[in-house]
Amino acid sequence: MATKKNARSGFYFFHRPQLDNPSTKHAPRGAPIPVLAGSASIGVEMAIHPDDEMYQFAFQRLGSVSLARRQYARQGLRIATTFGRIAEWCFPGAHAPTVLDFASGHGRATRFLAAHLGAERVWASDIKDDAVSFCQSTIGVGGFTSTARPEDLEVVPRFDLIVVSSLFSHLPRHLFHGWLARLAALLEPGGVLAFSVHGSEMVDPSLMPADGYLFVAESESRVLNADLYGTAYVTTGFVTGAVQAAFGSAIHMRCLPKGLCGAQDLYVVSRDPARRVEALPLLAEPVGYVDVCVLTPGGHLHVTGWAGTHDPGDQLQWVTLELDGVRIASSSAQLHRPDVSAVLGNPALERSGFDVRIGIHPPFTGDRLLEAKARTLRGAEDVLLVD
User: Fold this and answer.
1) Among the CATH numbers 2.20.25, 2.40.50, 2.60.40, 2.10.110, which is that of 287-386?
2) Among 37-41, 96-100, 118-122, 241-245, whose mean pLDDT is lowest?
3) Predicted TM-score (pTM) of this structure
4) % the chain with pLDDT above 70
5) CATH assignment of 14-279?
């Protein structure tokens, strides 16, 4: 997520635009912030490496150090919270599992995992040497540098849980298969692999090849070769076949649609039935967009959009608007939006629209941060995006 200024209103919104990569070296040290939702409020190391592409993207979009840090931390926390829930479900008990954050980058999510599970239980791995060194020296986790080819990765420790966010969503076919097999070999007996992908519903069905795999040699990274790190879209059938080839036929697997940040499908795999991966609850956050935001000279704010959840066992409770962190309005999302349900293929989102009108008094000058948030009955909450 990032923020986008609405020229008509003077507000900033969080969203996920597709923009060119930035180039910035400005990444000051930050104060500790609360860790995983539902856990104790403990400190998290928030120093950011100047070459961290995830931070650079945010800074380019926002043009503000403080807002970029906010976006960077928010996304890292969301990813770590998801993987933390998987760790707690698959490895209940007093002792936390050993965890490898593979393709960790400069530790956007690793730092939250380390704070939650203990740095001594967490390792980071990335193809960039400076990213691994930073995670080791600053966050205090273990680490090793990855390789371009899976077969070149030397013997490293085995792990109870390996988590991979937004790597397989970028790999060409041979590396998709290769890294699945290599990571499967890095698991302890009874270990669990969790990885995210772009689902095939994100592209026009007519573009998907018959085998369920589509690769486009384009990505947001200017550092990595697009032929080796582009954008991949896959069907469940393709992933199932790839997992069986890597793990063998005696596997237990769960697909969590849009399970990572409400954007990517999340697969959780183990050879051990004791890990209960097939019964893992859906980790669905609310989804939605702000379509219109208008603030008139007289101080009348009008915001429309849609919000809902992909979790069939949950439903949206409300949408709220917060101005500089203060709630100013709330609304249900029950207006008809057949366009949303048609595009996302989810009939439950047919009544997902909202329309909020409120007076802002007294009038203000300058920029203000407006966040539209959605919350479900199960307590899942997220900031809506801006189209």
Assistant:
1) 2.60.40
2) 37-41
3) 0.80
4) 84
5) 3.40.50.150
